[in-house]
Amino acid sequence: MTASKRVRKALVSVYHKEGLDEILKKLHEEGVQLVSTGGTQVFIESFGLPCEAVENLTGYPSILGGRVKTLHPKVFGGILARRDHETDKKQLSEYEIDEIDLVIVDLYPFKETVASGADEQTIIEKIDIGGISLIRAAAKNYKDVVIVASQAQYTPLLQILEENGAQTTLEDRRWFAKEAFAVSSGYDTAIFNYFDGTDESAFRVAVDESMHLRYGENPHQKARFFGNFEEVFDQIHGKEISYNNLLDIDAAVNLIDEFDELTFAILKHNNACGIASRDTVTEAWTAALAGDPVSAFGGILITNTVINKEVAEEINKIFFEVIIAPDYDTDALEVLMQKKNRIILIRKEAKKTSTQFRSLLNGVLVQDKDLSIQTESDLEPMTRTVPSRTETVDLLFANKVVKNSKSNTITLVKSKQLCASGVGQTSRVDSLKQAIEKAHSFGFDLSGAVMASDAFFPFPDCVEIAGDAGITAVIQPGGSIKDQLSVDYCNEHGIAMVKTGIRHFKH
To answer: So which residues are the catalytic ones?
Structure first.
């Protein structure tokens, strides 16, 4: 232990009091004098513990409706005084200021108040002034003072009190200071973002929770996930999640959320290699796997329905990394848990973000997420032939898959089943050729199938190739100055083409 210091006097002023009682009792046992304000003082005294009111310390009452309570030299002098600084010590003596060695304080719930939909005046009153000032002062003087800035630090403080009494080391105090500045910076970020609104005049993000990952994109890269993963999923089995797992999990969730029907999807490297909608989960799994049983090896599985034993036994026949479902029957879990490293996730109801960002060059790119979902009413016919009811259903299905695949993308769908897709190609023609070749290699008859493209066709080559393969309907954004070339070919060959007006590039 280095630079050990004893706590003799503590200022306690908190909004959240749960879990504080044991700390207060332990501080009293150690002979620590307690100073507090308002409701916290009443709370302390309810345990029969002596407590001095801040008003007695400062000689001033709480004023301005409680806005000013602790903002006084008698408080901040006692916190900020450097114990090894002779001038500071003389001034403490001259102005009769007692040293304060421990500050336990938290902040008004600003983010929660904003989220509640409260009016602006209520929100403004939840901007903490005294608390944030106490946090910064105590954290700045961590060489002499312990700062506990949130309930999250109650347990570490209590552990120190139980193991070492009222003694703290320099390492202890510096750790608490680091945590305190995390609290204050996150709080100020929330306030700024509230005032900034949709102006986006600066990029400010603060995330407290983090999760260690096995490695980054490659084993030689370190990685962490900043966010509350447990708010979205319960991991009930399997190994530690990796960076690549998270990318695939995110892609899988975005894809499955496009579908209201019972659907099963298999993803590999953020792209669907199999997806189908059917009446039962076993039928959906079987049809999804048929789309590309080779790429399914080591993939990510996701469905929007409960996994039962019947489908679990079928799934268990292949190797996969992760499975995600809203729930699992008990006997299904017994089957799936036979492989110890297999990651099994239960998806919870959780709010998704509407903004996404990524680091790039020497800055950050920010954009709205592509949350548009086209329906039948959004489809505008471009050709004399219009799609049948069955083709329309398949076109919308294909468009959802193409939206969630890497550009350039072509998807081929028949009977609400992905026959094949060509993804991530520099040429849309190559994407189409790749999709047709894959579909044929897995035994699909593309006669009567439909095609979706994530962007418009600048030339008629794609519809020509699609027509030769038996495709009867096409969905695309439209918007090329040469749209008519593709429309003319489709009209000549009886192919239905519709446009959405929405491009779905994805990088």
So the answer is: 140, 269
